[in-house]
Automatic annotation (TrEMBL):
Subcellular location: Membrane
CDD domains in the cross-refs: MFS_MFSD7
Organism: Lates calcarifer
Transmembrane domains' residue ranges: 40-60, 80-100, 107-125, 137-156, 177-197, 203-225, 258-281, 293-316, 328-346, 352-376, 388-410, 430-450
Name of the encoding gene: SLC49A3
Annotated protein name in UniProt: Solute carrier family 49 member 3
GO MF term set: transmembrane transporter activity
Amino acid sequence: MEGDGEASPEVQTVSSEDVPRTPNPELKKLLFFKVYKRRWFVLLVLCLLNCSNAMLWLTFAPVANQSAQYLKVSLEDINWLSLVYMVVAIPLSFGTTWMLDTLGLRITLILGSWLNMFGALMRFFGTPPSEGFQIRFVVVMLGQTFGALAQPLIIFTPTKLAALWFPDHQRATANTIASMSNPLGILLANIISPMIAQTSAEIPTLLLVYAVPACIICFLATVGIRSSAPPTPPSASAESSGSEPFVQGIKLLLKNKAYLVLLLCFGSGIAVFTCFSTLLEQILCVHGYTNDFAGLCGALFIVFGVVGAGALGLYVDKTKKFIEATKINMSFTALACIAFSVVSLMPEQKAAVAAICSFFGFFGFSIYPVAMELSVECSYPVGEATSAGLIFVSGQVQSVLYIILLQALTTRLSESPLSTCGDAVLSWRVPMLVMAGLCSLFTCCFVMFFHTRYRRLEAEEQATYGTKQINGSTPSDHAPSAET
């Protein structure tokens, strides 16, 4: 592990063939940017932390029935163990965006790692297996709340880290890796929770399994992250851009029509995926699908999502076609959501359900890192944490509304011979159709109404070459390809 000093920097150079004849006076300085190997360690810590926090969030959803029995509460109460993340994140997000853009990456990540660890430990030590202990749910909810406090400190960070530590031809890839560690945590929760907590008595063991990595990651973050940014910038925008002050940045975003369309439509997409992850087991169990199968579907959803995100991240890093990639993938995601709303209500269709979950994840999850980069491109020079953070807030607000709405639309079934849900048997037919309708509506709005320039790419080209965008072309058409 290398230090942050001048030791072993990787140097980006641009071929002299690519240099314009009348360069900007600052060109000589700007054409040589250093990138440091330590950026991969910072990225690794963020990935581990993001993964751990997602595991804490979704600990109980794949084993909702066992959790309800152990904590002596209803399934609706168990859903609130996931919903508390959205409720807490909404007011906290504004402070987090200010913290990231003002106090820096290091302080934000270290604070997030300590809150994450404290929440995991509280859940374990506060819920002993004693039958006489009657406040288990309250203690677990408190632990979940600390995890929820950590979430915005962690999940807002990928775009900021990519902008500060990575060159322009690696930003989308770095953002993808950091962002996809969150669904990886969801994947692990979908696998680990049903595997360990097959009965309600094994819930304490499950909580211990999630607490141990949280402690290790906290140590790595506290000891290993020594600075918020590298000694020298990796790109022209990282060097020359001074983010707008927080309040001024908010005002600029509220006047940016393209950003507002992205805020609303992509926020709805986040809400749909939150509903899917939280309610999947409850939706499938009504028609005879076991917790293990629901966990498998959740795993396929994530695995194919990570694969799709990796491929799309590499593609947009090379082509800079953020808008086209996002619109196409959102359209396929809406089709997958419609298909799931129909097939999930049919018994004995394991192959079809598994295939649609894979399709849903492949196109849906891959949008997230690209859309976050797009939020920065359409809102530059507003700080990366502010532009990406408000979209996350939009997703959290809509997630709470969607989950409450979908639960309110369920109806209790008098009998369901195939059910593996235990005592609570609910019909999800209407909620699923409503979710598909909302997903389709906001996808259509995004495809029709979202148009923007790539402001950050334009600024980088302007800083390096003193040129402006040519009609009908993007800066990526003229910028040189740098090799590290």
